[in-house]
Amino acid sequence: MDAISNTFERLGGVNLLPILLAAVAFVLIGAPSSWVTLTVAGLAMGMMVFLMASGLSLVFGLMDVLNFGHSAFVSFGAFVAATVLAGLSGWLASDSVALGSLALILAFTAAILFGLVAGWFFETVIIRPVYRDHLRQILITMGAMIVAEQTILAFWGGTPFSVPRPSFLEGAWIIGDVSIEIYRGFAFVLGLIVFVGLYFVLNRTRIGLLVRAGVEDREMVEALGFRIDRLFIGVFMLGSALAALGGAMWAGYETLITPALGAELMIIVFIVVIIGGLGSIEGTLLGALLVGLMSNYLGFLAPKMALASNMILMVAILLWRPNGLRPAVK
Amino acid sequence: MSLLSLKSVRTDIGQYAVLHDVSFEVPEGGVFVLLGRNGAGKTTTLRSIMGLWTPSPGSITFRGQDITAMHTADIARLGIAYVPENMGIFGTLTVDENLVLATATGRIDPDRLKWVHGLFPALETFRDKQAWSLSGGQKQMLSVARAIIEPRDLILIDEPTKGLAPSIVDAMAEAFREIAETSTILLVEQNFGFAKKLGRDMAVIDDGRVVHAGSMAEFAADRALQDRLLSLSM
């Protein structure tokens, strides 16, 4: 058993899990074209969930805050971006890639800016009074989530909101028997860029060093002369902005959104954060990819099990590694 | 004027009063030792100085400046370093990253680093290792190294010899002697043998009150006083 465990660790350890999952699915699915389509869909979904979950993981790990209101940023990000895109539908309908790209950039920028400002407000007004009190955190952030959902309902109405996409992101690439939706490829690439950016900031900058140290021992960071409360605001704003960007991406993916979008995704987001390990960006990416792949493979192989698949995955991983796949604190 | 002064400090943790009336003065230079039994309030005293728990009432002054209600980070920036009992190292960061984090600018002075590596050679050997993989003694060395990687006026050190092998304790004593040539050390220690080798001045704390203060030489010579205050026979 030890020999297997050592070999597994030497070959890459938990980083191999998405590859192992894909290999098992390949055998079970049988048809390579279906497998490729499902794998790309799973990776794209995983990257979008990663965008939403990464901020929550840092907030959880660094600030020890259980923020159920995180879904509000996802929902608002989706609706803000959708509204900007709807307002620029003329640009989107044109064949111009430049105009379509500009509309998309403006929509995502609006979602990110909204996330930053709302994150600052949320941390200052709602979270700060309840630091170190998990019960009150749960109550107040769940309350905030309900208020946010109702606010979206009041502004945008209860009927599903249609989200236009730039024409260059419509359709699919056809390679032999394989069909890959262009938007999914785009979601994967954008998620990867955000991951690389976050990884660089966390591992190659002084701010990142402080965040990583703060996840382990906040008190000691303060004793070294740093105001961790100021770092908290920055991390919370970043997490909120990433959630809003994830919501905006998800809106373009679904093309029809409702105010309950954030709350519906929240279960998946929490599962990803827990199985990845609190405060770990690499763990969050791993967890998100596993959840994305598992959902798509099981949706194809055993549709009735699709909803339960992520719960089963979480239970299995926590039985194996109670602190998650790549916890930030050893 | 003393470097650090505590006057009638009372610190409550939740509904419990841990420090009732702590007053003592730490002169500049050398090692000042705070002795006491388990649960006497030694760690709480250090944490109160660092602003991790706020005393009320009472006052703490550093170089004449009232730091009683100051934020921990601001107290640290005045030139006070803290080595907690649990060492407080960041396990997922490398040895070098732990040291870099303790600098004000993010850059370590090469001469200073050379001096620190001279005191604790293991930290040079394992500079790229993640800190969680170090031994207990090496972790303690890293914790002390982090406190001295930049010049500090006062270093608060909480039970640095706890659980360490005798050879490491000896090395630590040598390092403290050298550090005390340029900084003042306020050392909390239960190992009286270690403390009396280093201390110039001392105080004994019991049940949240200072019950004795004076020179270490006199205290070390008075066996009856030691027995009475520490219930120890060294």
From TrEMBL, chain A:
Mode of membrane association: Multi-pass membrane protein
Example GO biological process: amino acid transport
Main location: membrane
Keyword Repeat assigned: no
Keywords per UniProt: Amino-acid transport, Cell membrane, Membrane, Transmembrane, Transmembrane helix, Transport
Keyword Cytoplasm set for record: no
InterPro entries the UniProt entry points to: ABC_transp_permease (IPR001851), BCAA_transport_permease (IPR052157)
Superkingdom, natural source: Bacteria
Transmembrane spans: 12-29, 35-60, 72-93, 99-126, 138-162, 182-202, 231-253, 265-291, 298-320
GO CC annotation terms, alphabetical: plasma membrane
Compartments, record wording: Cell membrane
Gene Ontology molecular function: transmembrane transporter activity
Pfam families linked: BPD_transp_2
Family: Belongs to the binding-protein-dependent transport system permease family. LivHM subfamily.
This protein's name: Inner-membrane translocator
Organism: Pseudooceanicola batsensis (strain ATCC BAA-863 / DSM 15984 / KCTC 12145 / HTCC2597) (Oceanicola batsensis)
Lineage of origin: Bacteria, Pseudomonadati, Pseudomonadota, Alphaproteobacteria, Rhodobacterales
Automatic annotation (TrEMBL), chain B:
Residue ranges constituting the ABC transporter domain according to the UniProt record: 4-232
Leader peptide range in chain numbering: none
Biological process according to GO: L-amino acid transport
Entry keyword annotation includes Transport: yes
Molecular function, one GO term: branched-chain amino acid transmembrane transporter activity
UniProt keyword annotations, A-Z: Amino-acid transport, ATP-binding, Nucleotide-binding, Transport
Pfam families registered for this protein in UniProt: ABC_tran (PF00005)
Gene3D superfamilies registered for this protein in UniProt: P-loop containing nucleotide triphosphate hydrolases
Family listed: Belongs to the ABC transporter superfamily.
UniProt-recorded name of the protein: ABC transporter related
